Amino acid sequence: MFSGVGPKEELEKYGIRQVVESPAVGKNHFDHLALHQAWKLKHPERGLALGSPAFNDPAYMLGYPVEWIATDAVPSHILEQALIEDAGGQPDIHPKSHPNLLPSTAHLAFLIAYAPLNLSPDYNVPLDGSHVSSGALLYKPTSRGRISLSSADPTADPVVDPRYYSTLADKQMLRAGVRRIGQIMETAAARGIIEGETTPQGMPSLTSSASDEDIDARIRGYSEVWHHSAGTAAMGKDIQDSVVDAELKVHGLKNLRVVDASVFPEPISATPQATVYAIAELAATLISQSMENSELTANASVDPGREELQDP
């Protein structure tokens, strides 16, 4: 926005000269919201978690201490009704058109970490080998936030209104994810290892039959994002609801591209690193092709009647 590309009223508010009226700049913000829970081990002496002297496999010291990430989908009939309600009750949601209703879509991700990780600061769980943690992550949120300016000073922090968990669809999806974690922890295999959930003070344990109210209260107080912020310079056809075109060029300008996760028009059912790499590769190809085309155009504009000097 400081370059003059953005919503007119936003730029005028801070005396920034407008170059292009681009109302979608800063809108469509989304991130991957998750709820992590701590689970107390029955036999911490077995060395099943970080903090125990017996948990010393160097492979788990090189990154996030997990072995798998599983994905799941919420039943379409539940999600479709939630989307209709979020749209104001207008039944114009079609399974073939809404990205969250496509049959191949994964709405949720799950993991078990061999340590109590990604917990809020006041969720006091010791890193002493006595706990593992679970994560239920919302891959396909429909909530959309906004990033705007706080002043004309480019070094000032922006105003971020993320609006996490603000749609019924998001609530239905993440509630289902939390209950699925409860189902996992209630299996015979898990009961042989897990003593129970260590909850934040004053909050009940979340089981497979936990109420919407209990899940929502935990999410409001203790959810975290995975810092996969994206969407605020979304790709699309129309400058009214997108910022860049299919070649990553900013609408209304020449030779300016955006190459990062902000161009995602929709959340992806994955962590974004590989997709950002792919976008960067695409941008490199597009820029190279553009330069080659410019050179061909320049060569074609040379006077065809001009004779080149030849070596004798």
Secondary-structure element order, N to C: EHEEEEHEEEEHHEHEH
Largest sheet: 6 strands, antiparallel
* Structural class assignment: alpha+beta
Q: Percent range for helical residues?
A: 25-40%
Distance between the termini: 59 Å
Overall pLDDT: 92
Q: What is the gyration radius calculated from CA atoms?
A: 25 Å
Helix count from the secondary structure assignment: 6
Strand content: 15-25%
Count of β-strands: 11
Which stretches are low in confidence, meaning pLDDT under 50 for 5 or more residues running? 306-312
- Which geometry do the CA atoms define? globular
Give a written overview of the molecule:
Helix content is 25%, strand content 15%. The protein has 312 residues and is α+β, with helices and mostly antiparallel strands. Strands 4, 5, 6, 7, 10 and 11 form a 6-stranded antiparallel beta sheet that branches. Strands 3-8-9 form a 3-stranded antiparallel beta sheet, with no helix packed on it. Strands 1-2 form a two-stranded parallel sheet. Strand 1, helix 1 and strand 2 (20-21) form a beta-alpha-beta unit. The longest helix has 28 residues, at 273-300. Residues 306-312 have low confidence and may be disordered.
